[in-house]
Amino acid sequence: MTTTAIIGAGPGLGAAIARRFGGEGHSVALIARNQDRLDALAAELAEIGITARGYVANVRDTASVREALDRATQELGAIEVLTYNPLPQKEFLRPVLETTPEDLVGAAEFSIYAPVAAVHQVVQGMRFLGAGTILFINGDSAVRYNASYAGTSIAFAGQTAYGQMLHETLQPEGIHVGQLIIPRGIIPGDATHDPDVLAGVLWNMHTTRGEFRRYADTLDN
């Protein structure tokens, strides 16, 4: 059975991704900071026939990310799909003149170091299989900087560059790396920004491959 790992498995988009990919027959590794919430989500998924387990990790601690993915691989099987979508912390969302070097350390740990650690943990298995998907999920500051959110703008730029390099490097080996840009955030009930709609877009990116970047909606001028 194919295993999907969701880093940032919260009650909104993370849960929707789990339902969509799990509904397509994938086992799901739920990765976030709170074991009780992960267990509750896994139980909800089990009620609709989806195999899911929760693994605790803090994305600002790369060792915990690697350990969670290692445990998931041992218990659920090789990870063939990785999604990275944790919610940025408030200190990353300060205006540029209020952003400190310490803020940027945290933003880099969150948006660069952790994704690199996660990819390193799963990519060799994908290369062995000759297949796999890695999906980064970002707000529009990943493609258009916002001086009001300096930390994420700077760190997302690094994550975007990393993802694009992975896309170009791994595409010949049958591994798709993509990025979904969600302008204006996640909006339950919205025609384009609802979590279930976005999970469907991610499933389409996984199955159709194609270009590196997809937009959930047009960017505001």
From TrEMBL:
This is 2,3-dihydro-2,3-dihydroxybenzoate dehydrogenase. Its EC number is 1.3.1.28. Keywords: Oxidoreductase. Pfam families: adh_short. InterPro entries: NAD(P)-bd_dom_sf (IPR036291), SDR_fam (IPR002347). One of its GO terms (molecular function) is 2,3-dihydro-2,3-dihydroxybenzoate dehydrogenase activity. The keyword Oxidoreductase applies. The gene is dhbA. PANTHER family: OS08G0476300 PROTEIN, OXIDOREDUCTASE, SHORT CHAIN DEHYDROGENASE/REDUCTASE FAMILY (AFU_ORTHOLOGUE AFUA_5G14000). It comes from the Bacteria.
